[in-house]
Amino acid sequence: MSERVLIQHLQSRDDGPVRVSGWVETVRDQKKVQFVILRDESGAVQLVNPATRELGDDADADADAAASAALALTETISDLATGTFLTVHGTLKHDERVKLGGVEIKIGTLEVAAEALPETPIAADSGLDKRMDWRFLDLRQARNNLIFRVQTTLEHAMRTWWVERDYIEVHTPKLMSSPSESNAELFSLAYFEDKTAYLAQSPQHYKQMAQAAGFGKIFEIGDVFRADPSFTSRHATEFTSIDAEISWIDSHDDVARMQEELLAFAIAAVKDKHGDEIRELFDVEVQVPTVPFPRIPLAEAREIVAARGYEIPRTDGDLDPEGERQVSAHVAETFGHPFVFVTDYPIEIRPFYHMKDAETGLTKSYDLLYHGVEITTGAQREHRIDVLEQQARDKGLDPAGLEHYLDFFRYGVPPHGGFGMGLARLLMLLLGESSIREVTFLFRGPTRLAP
Length: 451
What we know:
Number of strands: 16
Low-confidence stretches: none
Shape: elongated
Structural class: alpha+beta
CATH architecture of the largest domain: 2-Layer Sandwich
Order of helices and strands: EEEHEEHHHEEEEHEEHEHHEEEHHEH
């Protein structure tokens, strides 16, 4: 049996026998010829069959058998439903007149591996929720296939950047005995006997534990869980977080420099490998960001927003989503840059473990905005146990409930910091999509636990 050939490799092959497998995308059943568009995980190709509609009166047994086989093939093709998986042995021919890749395959034999029902439950104009109900069918589209090839390239590039710089990859627990951030947005579950476990909201504590363990530089790409009843285009109850933590830093700017170099490298890899396809299927020109990214203190960012005619309704001093869009618009107009670090947040709107600047009293932290949407929070962490305990008390937290975490700092931790970044948000903004649902393999939200 000949080896299966991926459709993307057909153009580089010589004319002749070939075997391809995939699913039926469309069938054009004309009077004298039949065309089938077959798609696999790498692309689509046109199959062609000269239609035989009836048997002749040939008395030759061999000719009669061939005619019967041709008629059977024609009837099989006529009955093919969209989505049917099949294998074709045929003859590859290069023909520049063929719009789809400049090649076509004349069908020799066709083997149906699995038939599909004749009517599909979703169409090109189906709504997002309907498409999510039938996600496995929705993902058969070429542009959706590309999303996850881009995601693969993005993650691989980030891992490459880190590994080449001697970072250690860790896999932190997702079942925890106590909250990783706060009691808000927390999923709890029964854990044997009378115990309660919590799904990790963040690998934050364990990233810092790695610094206490002397690992120096670490990263993780893994699931996190937030019991957040939000229904916005950028929130999910389970998502993939990209995290890194590094020791021996002087400030949060060291973390920001690491992240901007990482992102520039990863986005360049995406542009190099998928830029043409992204332009074709998403009408997006991938912009590789220059480094350094612009940096704007929060107080200045609020002034920029006000000068642009928008009044932020929040009373805690932070930016709201529209404020973030206005700051990013200013940066795009002024610097031509898709990213901006907003820095120097008050401790009142930051976690207790963010370090405060001794001179300003503001935290050594930042949010990273990309095309108007926050994708990251980063900071230098407080590593001095006495300061850390006091900041926890100032936040109304009981240090006794943080013992496992605080123990890290009782035996020495170097100055350190890191960031957490949502993979789906990054991917959504890179491809110009309107919702993280579009770029998540299987989305989880307040009302969606299936498929």
